[in-house]
Amino acid sequence: MLKKGLLVVSMATALFAGNVKMDLNAKYGANNFHTKGAQKFASLVKDYTNGSVNITVHAGSSLIKGNPLKAVKDGTVAMTDMFIPFTSGGGKVFGISALPFIAQSYDDAFKLYQISKPAYEKTAKKWNQKLLYSVTWPPSGFYSNKTMTSISDFKGAKTRTYDKNSAAFVNQAGGNAVALPWGEVYSSLRTGMVDSVVTSSASGKDGKFWEVLGNFTKINYAYPLQSVTINLDYWNSLNKTQKQAMLKAAAEIEKTQWQASKEENKVALEVLAKNGMKINEASPELKAELDKIANDLLTKYLDGANSQIKQIFKEYRK
Q: Domains (ranges, CATH) in the chain?
């Protein structure tokens, strides 16, 4: 890892030469729609800067094995994408998009993101980085072998969850939340270490969950965000024209990738069904029971939250 002074000198030299090269760590594989979006972003940046800024995307989190916030903060990597609810260091703010049943549609999720964005940007800045764009995952559902028709069906479920919010939700519903790295989920389903998963249609498709589970219930648990950030030292080393070009590319990619998320959800559900997985709508009874849990979890979440977070939810509920 370069020390900050050497990092700045190195970047200044690159700028003087008229050519800036940066690496972007992409958490997921090359075929994931978020990674494809990062590739398109890099292409647009190169185009809009007339080739003066070149970003190389590295799929499969090949550049970062630990905390992405820390890696970008330290300049270990110039840029990364990150699943922000699961990102250590983001605190309560980064958990907003993964709160259960707050957003019930893509429109809701986008509204919540726009209101929350200043708080995300403030947190990113504390970690020496700039938030460039964020894209929602398709809505999280519940994968299991049995049909989930009421809250009693969650009793005893051993469920892989992706953050503190989803863990609290599963535990309060009567199940047992299990924290696992994504790479261990499929094998854990095979061995019975877990028997259910809270995640999106896209993740279930990519993970070939139909080989180990039979049902996907569309509970619309949450619309969690994947974000791309850049180290502030790298950002500040760019000239005004390059910064404007990068922001233009980020705005375009954010817009097209939110639409891509909708398309990915549609395609993923079709693939799941084609491979024999039963796709279930959540019953009105189940929705009502889950809403009770969601309201309780939100109350606990807001207890002790700072005024900025509380204001976000006041504005969102207008």
A: 4-139+224-267 (3.40.190.170), 140-222+276-316 (3.40.190.170)
